[in-house]
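Follow-up to my earlier ticket, as requested here are the two runs.
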Amino acid sequence: YYSNSPYTKFNYAQNSNLGNPDLRWEKNQITNLAVDFAARNNIIYGSVDFFFKKGTDLLGFKSFPENTGITSLEGNYSGMTGHGFDINLNSHILTGIVKWNITALISHATDKVTHYDVTPLSNQLVSAGGSTVPNVGRPVYAYYGYKWNGLDPTNGNPIGSLNGNPSQNYALITTATPLGELSYIGPARPTYFGGLYNSFFYKGFTLAVSINYKLGY
């Protein structure tokens, strides 16, 4: 990319990433299992689906010694797994002059980073605000925070933690907190979601009522 040198004030070019001759397609393995069911006269019917996903050779960065001229290189250096299920339930509650059909949808999905070569900094994870900063063992999208030790009773300032001790040195907390001392808040994307859908029919009139939800994030 191009920029202005702070020393010479002239434009200069800098490589943001070197060519990688080993670059290849990402790989995803997905297994789906499904069961359909129905009661007599289809009073209750639906399906249950399970999925298992494994991603390998995903694009990510790998650390390199600085004497190579770079500190990291983008390539097929990442991996993740995921699993979940979908439940679809349908029922004809009323079948007379007034008809009432109901559909319930329940979905669950989780993911986890299984391999990423570059260890993130603590302030990267906190400042990301749920964006994708890979951290092994956690969801791809996740929230993190600094540990909380309440408020200072003398001035009301928030008290953080540094090396296991209470601290109000915010600049040092944000730059020197070890990764293991961060508080993992949870996934930034819903792990459960779905809805409840009702349809009422009377002669030529139809009324639809729905409730949607997102949980677990």
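Run two:
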Amino acid sequence: MNKALLVGRITIKPELRTTSSGIPFTRFSVAINRPFSNNGERVADFINILVWRKQAENVKNYLNQGSQVAIDGRIQTRSYDGQDGQKRYVT
């Protein structure tokens, strides 16, 4: 089972885009504070999020930078060869 539940704050204003076939999507990142500190300093993880279709439109219309969100989804990874010939990995 591949299921993730993330709660955090949006780091940048989501922008709605469309694929060449007209499917709407938006990408943004969410800052998630870790439950502990590192030498008294708060630490956060920044997770990239991709949302499709009607949900992407709702994100663009109702959420802004700093909005707190709960995301229920799945984690997906892929790889590709960069322009410099190095293999890149994306989660």
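The only thing I checked on run two: Residues 9 and 30 are 5 Å apart (CA to CA). Let me know what else you need.
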